[in-house]
Amino acid sequence: MSIKLIVGLGNPGPEYEQTRHNAGFWLIDQLAGSSLQRDKNFNALIAKTRIAGEEVWLLEPQTFMNRSGQSVGAICRFYKITPEQVLVVHDELDIAPGLAKLKKGGSSGGHNGLKDITAALGTQDYWRMRIGIGHPRTLNLQQGVADFVLHRPRKEEQPLIDESIERGVDIIPMLIKGEFADAMTKLHTIAK
Which residue numbers mark the site Discriminates between blocked and unblocked aminoacyl-tRNA (predicted)? Predict the structure, then answer.
């Protein structure tokens, strides 16, 4: 089994473009370059590309985060993509900036985008790449979670988040080839 669809989570519109909640979009933007096109059928920006010799769909839902499952469910049904072939890239409060983690399945951890995708796919059994943005509490910020994710990273956090996204992009070919264990090891191991 290999990845056929890579979904980046975020919110559409220029006011959200640079916010922490759009970390998933940032990774897709790196993979897609300028090839994303609006597709009304899926209510998303979408591109078909080749990675590691295989055709892969890239998707940025334009439904706002909490309704991401509408786009993901629609494209999976149309192209007969199974949940095990889906990688969802999203911001993660419980991981520090500069780190990224890969896992298959599990709970949404309170992430509304994941909750909606799980409902649309009828299972939690899809891959997730979690891009660490930190938590306002662990970063000693007096800020609520909703406010935190809808703001830009601080100047010292942005390069760390960018590095973890670059490491995420680096392992995508391994995921396309079905080398999940090796990809996980490479992503989770940070060179000192």
Answer: 11
